[in-house]
Every structure is written in structure tokens, then in C-alpha cells.
Amino acid sequence: HYGQSDIFNDVMDVMNMVFTAVFTVEMVLKLIAFKPKICVAKKERWLGYFSDAWNTFDSLIVIGSIVDVVLSEAESSEDSARISITFFRLFRVMRLVKLLSRGEGIRTLLWTFIKSFQALPYVALLIAMLFFIYAVIGMQVFGKVAMRDNTQINRNNNFQTFPQAVLLLFRCATGEAWQDIMLACLPGKRCDAESDFNIGEEFTCGSYFAIPYFITFYMLCAFLIINLFVAVIMDNFDYLTRDWSILGPHHLDEFKRIWSEYDPEAKGRIKHLDVVTLLRRIQPPLGFGKLCPHRVACKRLVAMNMPLNSDGTVMFNATLFALVRTALKIKTEGNLEQANEELRAVIKKIWKKTSMKLLDQVVPPAGDDEVTVGKFYATFLIQDYFRKFKKRKEQGLVGKYPGKNSTVALQVIGLFISYISLTDPH
Prior knowledge:
There is one protein chain. The protein is mainly alpha-helical and 426 residues long. The chain has helices at residues 6-34, 53-78, 90-94, 104-116, 120-142, 162-173, 178-184, 210-241, 249-262, 275-281, 294-304, 316-328, 336-350, 356-362, 373-394, 402-423, and strands at 38-39, 46-47, 269-271, 313-315. It has a two-stranded antiparallel ribbon with strand order 1-2. A two-stranded antiparallel ribbon has the order 3-4. β1 and β2 form a beta hairpin. The radius of gyration is 34 Å and the shape is elongated. The termini are far apart.
């Protein structure tokens, strides 16, 4: 601020250097971990540090902050004002934007702001049309009013040119003294010296049309156009927050963010043992939620029956497709292999350019020897129930609680039937 003490300047400079050093170390560590860029499958697609937009933004902040520190030291050491560092000091403020990448609520607000821009151009076009029409009308009706410094129609506010008319209307749209401008355009005003008025008609410019002209313009701007902006933003915010049972693009962002924690090298696959933990961290409808018990989550994975690679990993595309398919109940009833074949036929018909490799990855073709996550977790649950049943038998509790024993037995039988249905194509 103006007139700050030397001690305050020194403290701010030290804090600036400390934060710059911390952000620089963070960027260097991320570059070492993720590498600057990695080519994937000989395609023009690069993964790594700069694949994340937030990392790119962080790197710009770090570079700008380093330049700010260097120029600040050079200016203070040489005692010269030849180098302007005002621009680079903006990077100090931009560090606060990093907070947008933290927290679910802030990300939701940011996503709302971004999605609103898709509809705002149409609102902006409507506003431009409104300003254009009213500016042209104002030039025709009030363009001859003389510019006088002691009135609202002066060299800064007038209707004599189109740009000036638009600027004047913009001022009226904000509500600043629009009534005074309207009164300055009423009949009986002095005409401009360069206008084509006759002798004796020097005070005949202006019109009573100014009353409906300015009132309608202000009402349209204040009660219609501005509310359209608010409506677009509120509609997007309501869409993102109203009902989490409706799948949306923001669910994909959440899935990618949590998946990247289990797949830091962006290989597109994670261990099958991490799948249940991953899906319990993702909120419904896409995931299971943290309140979902581990055993219930395993049962849902049995029903999803995602393909399992030979190295014990599960693919990103297969996991996401299975989650969306389960959430929307797409071909999930009846025989699994028949449902898969019907779904493959639908995908081939609608998305003809889908590669067979990707199709086989998300919806595996019929086969007797395929290994799936469903079979693994069905085996895991059967073994878990059997161990519990055996433990209860050893403790002599099998005959004491027949209802509970029957429930456990039925659960084991149900899982065994599910396992048989997954392994037997017929």
C-alpha cells in the first residue's frame, strides 16, 4: 500500500521469496515424478506433468514469481527504475487461484462458471442486438442535441456517433443517472451548431420519445438481460448440485481425479485389489460411497463383472464403462453374455468408428476362459463366508443361532450360484 514502512517491505519480500521457493520445489518434484511429457502409443497425445491444466498454471505462476524476485532484487541493487516489475507482481496474487483446485465445493463453483460460458454467448448476442437497435434509434432522435459541459449531454455522453451512443447506453444500463440523461433529451434543448436546423429553431432539439425510450431500455437491461445472466449461472449450478443420482460430466472429473491417485504414472490401469477402495471413495451414482460396507461393495463388483487383465490389473475404460452401465442399468438384466452381445451390437450400430480393441476392452466378447473382476471377488466372498462359517462351527455356535446360520448359508449359496453363472456361459 501507499506509504508502507521499510520493515513491512522487507517482511513482504522475504515472504515472497519463501513462497516462491516452496512452489518451485513443488514444481520440480512433480516434474521428476510425472516427467514433462510422455508419448502414448505413438499417438499425438502427451501425458505427464503438463497434461494437467492445473500443473501448467502452476508452472506459469512459478516462472512469473521467479522473474518477479529476480527483477525486484536487480531493481533494488541497481537502484534503477528502468525495469518495470508491476506486471510480474501480479503473479503473487495469482497464487490464490491455486486454491480453486482444492476442495469439492470450490471445484463445483469453478465448473459452474466454466459451463455457464457455453450459454453466455447467446445472452451476449441478445444484449449486443439490444444495444445496437437502441443506439441507432438514439442517434436518429437525439443526435442533434448540443453537447454542453454543464448538462448530461456533453462531449463524453452523447448520441452523435455510434460508439458514443453505445457507451452512453452502457452507462444507462448500469443505472447511473439515467433519469438525468432522459431529462436532458426532452424537447426544448439547444441544437448542435453543426446540425441542419433552421434560423429560429436553435432550441427545438430533443423529443418526448426520450421517456419511453430510456424507461424501456433500462427495464430491459435491469430486469431481463441481467436476470438472464443470473439464470444461466444458477441453472448450471442447480444442475451440478440438485441431484447426484443424475450422471453428469462432473462425475467423470471426480472419477479421473481419484483414479489418478491409484495410477500416478497414467498407465490406464490399476490393481484389481484397489478397485473396491477406489469405488468406495467415489460418491454415488457413479461410485459406491464411503458409507458402503466393504462386503456390499464386493457384491456389487461381482455383478459388474469387469474384465481382468493377465497381470491382475483393471483398465480405466472398462471400469468407467461398467460403472456407467450399472448406474444407468444398460443391458444389466438376464444372461450376462447375451446382454453383452446385444450391447456390442448397439455400440457398433450407433458408433460405427469405435475400434474393436476398445470395444473388446469395455464389453468383452463371449468366451469360456475369460478372467473377470466379478469372478475374483465372488471367490473372495465365498472364501470369506466359508472362513466365518468354519470359525463359528469351531466355536460351537452353529446350532445355537439357527436363523443367523441359515442367513450365512443362504449368502454362501447365493454367491456360489453367482460364481457359477459368471463362469458357465450356458
